[in-house]
Fold:
Amino acid sequence: MQYPYQIKTLEQYKEEYQKSVDNPEGFWAEIAENFQWRKKWDKVLEWNFIDPKVEWFKGAKLNITENCIDRHLETLGEKPAIIWEPNNPEERTRVVTYSRLHKRVCQVAQMLINNGVKKGDRVCIYMGMVPELAYAVLGCARIGAIHNVIFGGFSSQSIADRLEDSKAEFIITCDGAFRGGKDIPLKSIVDDALIGNKMVKKVIVYTRTRRPVSMIKGRDIWWEDEMDHALFQIEKNNEVSFPAVEMDAEDPLFILYTSGSTGKPKGVVHTTAGYMIWTTYTFVNTFQYQPGDVYFCTADIGWITGHSYIVYGPLAAGATSVMFEGIPTWPDAGRFWDIVDKYKVNILYTAPTAIRSLMAHGLEPLEGKDLSSLKVLGSVGEPINEEAWHWYDEYVGKGRCPIVDTWWQTETGGIMISNLAGVTPAKPSWATLPLPGVQPVLIDEHGQEAHERDETGLLKGNLCIKAPWPGILRTTYGDHERCRKNYFATYPGLYFTGDGALKDEEGNYRITGRVDDVLNVSGHRIGTAEVENAINMHTSVVESAVVGFPHSIKGQGIYAFVINEKKPHDEELAKQDILETVSRIIGPIAKPDKIQFVSGLPKTRSGKIMRRILRKIAEGEMENLGDTTTLLDPAIVNEIKENRL
Ligand code: PRX
Structure:
């Protein structure tokens, strides 16, 4: 597959960028010609950021799976779409060609239809990183069911909340999932989520670990049986096909829940055509993917990175993608390098937290591993610190692979600000330039476009985007007002990202981190309010305040200040109880790294917790706490400082 829209030089980048700003409709219409449509659009773009309303390629008809699979069959049918590396390196690899993928996705589509799933129905997917997860996602897309993938680190309660919010009637899960030395009981976690749930009609269970599971008659069914049956129905003369359902360009493709600064996670909704074009365009340009390259994204499909850059973007581009079930440090910290060596990976896309955790193991795990196939390295999920950047560059890329630092969000659907590998210049710890179609703007503390540079020539402000790109979220599921308030109300007429940024004189952006009460722990977004709510559910807790603190591996750690009803007899045990509660309510990924029991929290006279002070204390900044004159009880600050962990 060739990519006529692949940018090859810095000059060309500048031209394309300008075109995308001057004439977005013409620009994207031209790119859209590289996709397969059942019917072309009536209008390329309609939008306002007030309601907000964004519609790309209105009136067009398509199915994203025809673009990701069917159209490649003739030329790439026998080429690998997915190369699956199991958790246990001793276990057999699976190579899924495009024609095999087609067969499996058709089977899933038929299986879903057999079980009563219709276009527009929500299907919750809670699986480990097995190829069947990709089949499940694409099978939903083939019949127009809206998938909602939930990462395996979330608890029953989190699943229950998402099932309720999305009014899902179907679940696809596994008996268990292997991750490093663990066997996570996925089905049993789903079973707990279903206690009292009257909406879910069917639970399809794929066998991965073959641990004992409860199977409830009439509701729970085995994936293998259902897939066999589906195959029997759709196989004729050794050919398998299941006609893809025709979708409108703006029909929802999926919901993915993500944390914000208030309330429960919200269901970010992406639609079909714009998302497809955005993920493919950004994949091909950022990584400079060439036909035949082996590309390895280490993310989990439970997060947006896996949706956009394991499933949709690479497949729509006809790429070969490595999918890894395990973790970077098991059975040892050489696992990524073994995989690169084994499959001759050309492009590696991972997260700073993974790089830092591997750095901590020294250089030995890299010894004897042939990394000469690597051409491009990528980073995503959080700011990459210079030390990690240089380690990645020197020891993994051997100084000859461009590193793309890709800034984007669940809500943006795909990469927004990044250098293009080898085409536009890299700058360590800077995401650098916006992709064509992206118009960033920095807003200062007065709500105006920042224009005053500091003494080093940098502009500073809150990062907003002026105009829609094809992959922008369309709504938050079931609550459009929440979408408006969260993203479009802070600065009227702009999309507000929640991040702060710097801009240099060349127009490069450096993302400095969240400016709201959202933490980024190991590249995962967690709302402080969410963690506080979970802690407060513990029986002996009166109140709590959660802030982030710098963590050498995770980027940010979670620091919880907790007021208990009475002083615990056994502090350690009391902390363990709280951790257990957070695990139950949100999931193990939200467990605080530090819990400090306090007798009070610094509050203003009107009762507002002064998080700024707590944040400073958690960061170890004990002296310059800023203005504390408005505090109700200044003495509490000293107590907290003295007992800081
Ligand atoms: O703060 C930014 C940070 O991650 C947030 C988005 O998180 P999520 O929706 O979970 O998506 C993560 C994967 C795209 C952003 O608001 N972030 C992401 N990438 C970068 C980043 N911060 C700095 N540099 C990046 N490259």
Q: What stands out?
A: The CA atoms of residues 166 and 619 lie 38 Å apart.
